[in-house]
Amino acid sequence: MLPPVVPFSIETPRSIHFGVDSIQKLREVVMGFGHRVLLVSGTRWLEGSGWGQRLAAALEGCAVARVGCPAGEPTTLSLSRVMERAGAFDPEVILGIGGGSVIDTAKALSALLRHAGPVERFLEGVEGAVPIPGACIPWVGIPTTAGTGAEVTKNAVVRAESLGVKRSMRSVHLLAAAVIVDPQLTVSLPLAITGTSGLDALTQLVEAYVSRRSNPYVRALVRGAFGPLREALAALPGSPGNLALRSAASYGALVSGVALANAGLGAAHGFAAAVGGLFDVPHGLACAVFLPHVLEANAEVIRGALGELAAGYGGGDPVGWLAAEVRGLLRVYGLPPDLRGFAIPREAIPELADKSSGSSMKGNPRDLTREERIGILSRVM
Questions:
Q1: Per-residue pLDDT tens for 95-148?
Q2: Contact (Cβ atoms closer than 8 angstroms) between residue 161 and residue 143
Q3: What is the pLDDT of residues 160-181, one digit of tens each?
Q4: What are residue 38's DSSP bridge partners?
Q5: What is the set of domains in the chain, with CATH numbers?
Q6: Whole-angstrom distance, CA of residue 316 vs CA of residue 186
Q7: Is-contact 376 271, C-beta < 8 A?
Q8: Which of 213, 169, 346, 372 is nearest to 290 (CA)?
């Protein structure tokens, strides 16, 4: 007798174009939405990567206004400043090309330039916040890292400085109109960013797979992406220009975004969000550092699921294998095994334990007590 298939809903961008040379679809995709293009990118990427001229040629004939994003995740302040520069342009389509923070900025602008109000108006969990009321400006996402999968999610993570927290703008209206994932754009990534972004994607695959909100669709996608991503991360330090490895990493990141958007995450991301809300810690690094501790805390309820996911890799105890694998990948990329180098005061641990109980923590396979959260934070810091 077949097991019942649980009901689920899947929300994704309208179109996804993946693969080497998929960037050639840029003109066709963008001009399908309009000719007034707001280009959102990092402050140096277009010039430094060598892709600037190709993108300019693809957008020839369009009216293009460019805004550069400061380093780091978008904040209420940085978004307000970008809105001031971009608002008068009245774009028909927004093109976000960059890492997860750039993509989240483009995503947030698609709502903020269409629906008036301060940034805090749409941040979930903030007093007085309201849902995004309707359709936003169409936006196209082109990731230049293989990490967050932000191009296929319906939330934009924003740091609210005045509150000392990270919160999300979250709505089906924030899904991209189109996504182009070309692994060639990730070849120039420095080793450390390849590692932190890739480990973020690996964490998202794992947490979405064992999430209490997971479903058969997500698990099937994750099973197809986990092994290739894990192998690519192990091999990329020795062969950073290998397009097959970059493609596997980019596909893993893409799937991780679809997975988290449709199954939720877990405690590693809950801790990372709390730490990142108060301290300047790279998100991907925080996720990877917390993941082994979270796996060990969840061991009894995830061992069977992880056995399925890691079949053919771990043998024996899949929880112990994966925890050791993540710690080994941190070493391979020259990344620290903990967050002690960030000088986070230990007296902040109780506050971080309280602030870690957000939306990601709700997907964790089991409830972690406040004492357990304090214990994990203490071991990492």
A1: 999 999 999 999 999 999 999 878 888 998 788 889 999 999 999 999 999 998
A2: no
A3: 877 777 788 999 999 999 999 9
A4: 65, 94
A5: 16-185 (3.40.50.1970), 189-380 (1.20.1090.10)
A6: 35
A7: yes
A8: 372
